[in-house]
Amino acid sequence: MMGSAMEIADIDVQKIVDLITVHAVEFAPKFALAIITLIVGLWLISLVGKAIDYLLEKRDFNVSLRKWLSSVATVLLKACLFISVISMLGVKTTSFIAILGAAGLAVGLALQGSLSNFAGGVLILIFKPFQVGDYIVAQGEEGVVEAIDVFCTFLTTLDNRRIILPNGPLASEKVNNVTHEQIRRVDLAVGISYNNSVDEAEKALLEMAKNDSRILQEPSPFVGVVGYGDNSIDLTVWVWCKTDDYWDVYFDTNRAIKPALDSANVAIPFPQRDVHIIDKSA
């Protein structure tokens, strides 16, 4: 009886070994092909990632956007490669892909606000409505753009405060890029007395603008009447200058207006009121 049992056990073991051998022989080529595909695929994906980064660098893309796009492309390609490799091994990938899709949807809904800011950042970095160093006015804030990240933009105000603006609203709403153009117009206002000549005032102001080398003569300076106030004839003064000189020209020209009018004997009036005292006791 003992001999018979051992013979049966030897036969069962031999069948298991034979079955494993048959499956191993059948599976070995698939496994080898999957390993080769994985190695070659990872190598090719690495080359593709470097190529994308190189092409984006040549097209002068922002560094953070360039790195992000190349990394996203690499991750997506690796995910496709992983699915292809496990399908080569005979694993059903339909359910796996469905789970990944559901997980991606859940994450997208949870990060809806962040994804909006991210999409806005990508649009800003690609289309460049403003760049680092520009002075912008947006969302009730204004300042010099110090950095543009994928999710937010950093401003420094004139009084040296740091403002952080989310890129979602920044990409979809109005942005005033103050320093985008090379030249800007300085708008000033002044009033002269009704007793003085408008022609003399215009002549004096234009001569003042001509004597400042920072003020451009093309487009030419302009002085015109914009209204008649209670105490003065209201004039507007337009002069053009380089954007970098804007504030210097603004303050210096404002300061120079009064001496220029004084030299032409043109008065700048101020409100006056006549007070009549009635003596009721008389």
Offer a concise description of the structure.
Its main location: membrane. The protein is α+β, with helices and mostly antiparallel strands and about 280 residues long. It is about 55% helix and about 20% strand.
Give a structural overview.
The chain has 282 residues and is an alpha+beta fold. The protein has seven helices and nine strands. The chain has a five-stranded antiparallel sheet. Strands 6, 7, 8 and 9 form a four-stranded antiparallel sheet that branches. Helix 1 runs antiparallel to helix 2 (63-88) and helix 6 crosses helix 7 (246-263).
Architecture blueprint of SSEs:
Elements: H1 2-58, H2 63-88, H3 94-110, H4 112-127, E1 135-138, E2 141-148, E3 152-156, E4 162-166, H5 167-172, E5 175-177, E6 183-192, H6 198-210, E7 215-216, E8 222-228, E9 233-242, H7 246-263
Helix pairs in contact: 1-2, 6-7
Domain Mechanosensitive ion channel transmembrane helices 2/3: 74-112
Membrane topology: Multi-pass membrane protein
Subcellular location: Cell inner membrane; Cell membrane
